[in-house]
Predict the structure.
Amino acid sequence: MRIEANHNFSTIDIYKGEQLVSAIDLEGSVIEVVKELTDLFAALDVTCEVVEID
């Protein structure tokens, strides 16, 4: 799993391999939501990578 946080468009894209499995459009802090998702995945014992795109 990979999570891409795009600051320019306030979106979070979640990929499984190269396939986009979820796209979240946000108006608030992208990094806060990514942290919440990362914590959730860690609790589920799912390895993920967070990539920040400026």
About this structure: The first strand starts at residue 2 and ends at 6.
